[in-house]
Here is the input.
Amino acid sequence: MAAEALAISSEGLTKRFRGQLAVDHIDLAVPRGAVYGFLGPNGSGKTTTIRMLLGLAYPTSGTAELLGVPVPDGAVSVLSRVGSLVEGPAFYPYLSGWDNLARYDAADRSASSKSAAARIGQALERVGLTAAAKKRYRNYSLGMKQRLAIAAGLLRPRELIILDEPTNGLDPQGTREVRALIRQIAAEGITVFVSSHLLAEVEQVCSHVGVMRVGKLVFQGSLPELRHTGAARITVATADVAAAAKVFGKLGLADPAQGEDTITAELGDAEPEVICAELVHAGVGVRGLSVESPSLEDLFVGLTGEGFDVDH
Amino acid sequence: MSTISRAEVPAAATDGREPAAHVRGNLRFFLNELRLVFFRRRNQLLLAVVVLFPLLIGIGLKLAAPHGGGGGGGGPASGGAAFFNQLAGNGVFLTFIALSLLLILVLPVVIAVISGDSVAGEAGYGTLRYLLTVPAGRTRLLAVKYLTIVVWAVTATVIVSAVALVVGVILFPVGPVTLLSGTTVSLGAGLVRVLLVTLYVCAAMAALGAIGLAVSTFTEHSIGAIAAVMILVVASEVVDQIPQFASVAPYLPTHWWNSFDSLLRTPVDTTTLWHGLLSFGVYAALFCAIAWARFTSGDVTS
Here is the structure.
């Protein structure tokens, strides 16, 4: 029952390369119908996880299920219902876009040859490559290559689409196109699992996120849940910082930090109104008072650390 | 109602028409692989080279042949030496000459390029990971790859034989075939020998293809795999020539390649032929097994 409700699930999924843990006991839970952003800096184990989910790499320990079917053992039976883009597009440079899709289509034992032309034509049309169908892949632009890879993922009716860094190397317009495609796919009820090292790129389309940091899944949940993890801070502008600090101390506000004429602390469960009243009561002249929640980007960086790779 | 059944359609469809659909699906993949190999410009150029060699050998031998027939001088020292003298008398012998000369380097290169590229090339392009997530199935993909290599090996060998036969018939006299043992058989029986020799060489090249396939599963650089196969062939041929290594010679992959001259004698030396075919069979089985073990157990990292 629980497995049926999940498009992807894993328990203690682990991958070790020559003694180094690339993926460290992660428990994924991707609900059906979700758009799941799989976030983390480069090298945090996202691609290795995806490779294990797709049966390309074998886990060192732990188990994983796609659409309720265990992988890698059941990979061949379940993968025809899963479209994927792993580590960038890969095609035969000397073949046209059409022939490249025909190649992957022919490799699918459950696809009938009679409807192949219709399938390929539709997939190309969906990503806007109909006009370039006869052009050699070698002459495609980066954005066209990326879109062709997505088309390959859409050749058959799918229940789950796994996209690994689909916007990598794309210009802002290409990124927007891919985002629109993800929305379109999700609108059809297909579960989308999309990895990225940039939160901003997936924030607008995701319903759920999982955050990876050096092989560990450090957060998993819906976007509102992620927002909740951020501690809101109260900032008070006043001439008498020392007196305000005393009041903060009396109220038990955590992590106070004093500036020249401001003081901030974690709001916690305290009511801003009460804090204001207490300050006034103690004779502290309040010039300004504000409560701020951290942005998702701040939360993300807080979870993953300020790695040199985080920004790009 | 249609939305409910949507998810079940693929599973139900494959279960319903299992055997026929299965065969058709595999055939479709195999034909696509053949297309990919035979329509690739590089590979077509290789086949063009294969056509060119027997043509040049025929013309060269015709120009060099002394008038009035009969073998001149000592002739080349290679394994093909025995056939050269017969050529002036019968064009059919150009087939045997061409095959034995091309077996030294040209045919092995042509087989090594396709077999060494088979898996490594896909890994190099990154298409391997997409084929496996389609999903093509690892064993199924390997089977399709090896069958295609065999078709390629047969095609290249048959081209050599056919072109040599045509050129031989045009440039040299044709008639009853005098075998190496001195007996003469009819032209028809001679052509049957040509066919058998060709099939024997096909088997030898198919076995080499299995070695190439196995090497190909260990790397993502097809050039490396192709070079490794060629080094193996040349090393085996060199060792085969050194008398001190005579005890290991029968176990070398190239040792039995030229043994097809047994078919040009009466009675046919079947013991040698069976030894050769056994060697090819063992090499093919062993290296297909290595390829399978490696390919189905390792992570695909391309």
